[in-house]
Amino acid sequence: MTDKKLKNGKKASYRSKPCVLNHDDRGKALLDDEDESEEMPMKHIRCFALHQQDSPKSGESSSWRSYRQWRQERYNKSARLEKQLKVLEDQIDKQVKRFKTQYSRALNPTRPKDVAKLLAPSSTPPLELATLSWLGDWRPSSILGLLSSLTKSSPTLASSLTHAGATEKAISQLIHDLRIEEATVVKKILCQSDAAEFLVAFSGIQETVHQFSRDYKLRKGPVCVPLTSGSENVGADSAT
Amino acid sequence: MHVDRKKPPAAHRPFSDYYSDWITTMKTTHLPNLRLHMSSASPSLLSAHVEIIHHHFNSYYHTLDLAVSGDVSQILFPSGQRNAVELPFLWLGDLHPYVFTNLLRSYLHDPENEPENDPDPDRDPEYEDNQYDHQEHQEHEEDDEEIEVGESCEFLKKQWPLMNAWKIQSRKLTTRIDQIERGLRLMVPALMNRVRKAQAGFVQKVGSGEVTPAMAAAEMEEEMVGIVMDANRLRKDVISEIVSVTSVYQAALFLEGLAQFLVGIRDGKLLQEFKKCKSLIR
C-alpha cells in the first residue's frame, strides 16, 4: 500500500509540474530554472501527502496556501531582482551617458582660449595627465587596455564572461580600431554585470590615480633646476 | 591628508623661473643684438651672434633635460610656466619639431622670396651647390658693388644680402630640409608610440593589481624621462641641422623668427587679446 502510495505520489508529483508552471507566474520562474529543479520535488511530495489526507478540502487549502506563499515569495524575489537589474541598467546607462556628454561636441572648446584647458585641465594633476591622458582625457586605447587587464586578472569578471575568448578578440580589434567612442563600446561588448564591474573598476582606478597624482604634486613641489644652469647665457652677452 | 609643499633645494630654482629668465635674456639681449648685427655689413660678426643665440637654445634644452629628470610630468604639462597661447604648440614638453621646419619652409615658400630665375633642373646639382654654397655666399657679400644700388644708398647696401637671403636657395638646402622632414615623419610617430606603450603599461599594471599605482607611476616616469629627453635631442638636432645647412643670413633670419615666435607668444598684450577673442572654433 505504501509502495503504491509512493508510486502514485511520484505520478502525482510529475502531474503537478504542469500545474505549477501554468500557475499565474507570468514566466518569472523561468529566471530560476536551476533553483526550481532543486526545490520542486520537496514541494511535490508535500502536495502528494496532502492529497492523500482524509479531509481533502482542508488539506488542499493548506497545501495551496503554503504553495501560494512559496510562489509569492519567489515572485517577490524575482520582482526585486528584476528591479535591481533595472536599477543597475539605469546606472550603467547613466554612467555611459555621462561619458557621452563629456565627450560630446557641446563640451568641446568653442573659443581659442579653451583649447589649453582641454589639453591640460588645471583640475587634473600633471602626473595623472602624464600617465593616462591623450589630448586632455583618458587615452581611448588605455580604457580598453584596462578592460583587457581586468578581464585577465579579475576572477569574477573573467569567469562571468561567457565568451571570454571572443570578448578578448573584440577588445584587441577595438584597441586597434578605436578612436573616441570607447564609452559606448563598453556597453556594446560586455554583459550588464560585467559592464557595471568594469565601470566601478574604471572609476576606482581613475580616483586612485587622481589622489596619488595630487599627493605626488604636493610632495614634489615645483620642478627645479640647479642655479648654475643657464648662467652661461649671461656670459654669452659679453661677446657683443 | 596634509602634505607640505616641498621647497626648492639649496642652489636650485624653479624651472618656471629659469624659463622666464631665459626668455627675458632672449628678448632683451640676444634678439636685439642679433638684429643689430643683421643690419651691419660684417658677416663674421653676425655669424658670432648666430652662434650665441644657437648656444642659448642649446643651453635651454640642456636645462630642460635636467628638469625632466626632476619631474617629467610637470614638464609634459607645464601649466605653470606656459600660457594658454603656448600650450597648444607643445609636444612632449616643448615646441613640436615641425614648428622649426615649418618656419623654415615659410621663408622658402614666401612669394617675395621666390627665386627670380628658377634654376635649370638639368643643371648639375654639384655645380649649383658650389655656386651657392654657404661659404661662397658669404664671400659674394663682399662684392656688393656689383649690385646697382648706388654709392649713396648705404642702408640698402647693408640690407641687400639679408633681403636676398632666401632668393639664393641651393638644392643642397632644399634636399637637406626634405631629409630632415622625412626623419621627423619617422621619429615623431615612433616617440608617440613609446608614450602610448608607456601609458598602456601603466594602465595594465594598475588594472591587474600587479603593482601599486605609485610603483607603476615610478616605472612609467622612468620611461617618459627617456622619451622626453629623446624629443629634446630631436628638437636640438633639427635646429642645429638648419643652422648648419643654411647661410649665415638665412640662419640669422631663421633664429630671429624662432626667437621672436617664443618671445611673441608670451607677450601680455597678445595674451589679453587671445583671451578676449570671441571667434568660434569650428
UniProtKB/TrEMBL annotation, chain A:
Renumbered residue ranges of the record's region Disordered: 1-38
Top-level taxon in the UniProt lineage: Eukaryota
Coiled coil region boundaries: 71-98
GO biological process, one term: DNA-templated transcription
InterPro entries with a match to the protein in the record: OCM_Kinase, TGA_domain
Annotated Basic and acidic residues bias: 22-31
MF term (GO), any: sequence-specific DNA binding
DOG1 domain mapped to chain residues: 60-240
Keywords: Coiled coil
Annotated protein name in UniProt: DOG1 domain-containing protein
Automatic annotation (TrEMBL), chain B:
Lineage top rank: taxon: Eukaryota
Compositional bias per record (Basic and acidic residues), positions renumbered to this chain: 131-140
Biological process according to GO: DNA-templated transcription
Chain positions covered by the region annotation Disordered: 110-148
Domain DOG1 intervals: 12-275
Composition bias type Acidic residues, residue spans: 113-130
GO MF annotation, one: sequence-specific DNA binding
Name of the protein described by the UniProt record: DOG1 domain-containing protein
Originating species: Mikania micrantha
